[in-house]
Amino acid sequence: MWSQLWALIKTAIFTIFIPGTVAVYVPYWLTRGAIGRLPSDWIGGLALLPIVFGIVFHLYSAWHFAVTGLGTPAPIDPPKTLVVRGPYRLTRNPLYVGVVSVLFGEALMVRSLALTEYAAAVFMAFFAFVRVYEEPVLRNKFGAAYIEYCAKVPRWI
């Protein structure tokens, strides 16, 4: 119980600082505050769908990471067990999918080329980090269970 609560607290702190910076603070700066205003037309309103999806998907995934894995999304405090429930049944990287969904929704909402390029760069950085660091570390840590998981669940949606 206490270990789950502590993992949730650390995950909340991580989420505010890292995904919060990537998906809120930087886009706010790039768009000179435009993402902080409500959409003014139907396309901007439609863009709220990937934003809301991304936020919910990310938070639900982070919950599973903390409660099931007893760790955080931070590489310095990874989960103790392999998390394969909830959104992790759909994609091996739901936290990244959530952040990228928010970014592309924001880019559409304010029609920002700079934010679209930023979202693409963030996705490429996530992709490289997953391939170069996360997957080898998880393969070494969880062995056959992770290899079997990779065979069943796609890296991205």
Could you characterize what this model shows?
By secondary structure, the protein is an all-alpha fold. It has a single domain (2-152), classed as Four Helix Bundle (Hemerythrin (Met), subunit A) (Up-down Bundle), CATH 1.20.120. The protein has six helices and no strands. Helix 5 crosses helix 6. The longest helix is centred in the last third of the chain and has 30 residues, at 113-142.
Summarize the structure.
The protein is mostly helical and 157 residues long. The chain has one domain (2-152): Up-down Bundle (Four Helix Bundle (Hemerythrin (Met), subunit A)). The protein is built from six helices and no strands.
Q: What's the total number of strands?
A: 0
Query: Domains counted in the coordinates: how many?
Result: 1
Shape: globular
Structural class: mainly alpha
DSSP summary: helix tally? 6
Distance from N terminus to C terminus (CA atoms, Å) equals 32 Å
CATH class: Mainly Alpha
Q: What is the CATH topology? A: Four Helix Bundle (Hemerythrin (Met), subunit A)
Strand content: under 5%
> What is the helix fraction of residues, given as a range?
over 70%
| Average of the residue pLDDT scores | 95
Observed structural traits:
157 residues, Four Helix Bundle (Hemerythrin (Met), subunit A)
List the helices and strands and how they pair.
Elements: H1 2-30, H2 42-46, H3 48-67, H4 94-110, H5 113-142, H6 144-152
Helix pairs in contact: 1-3, 1-4, 3-4, 4-5, 5-6
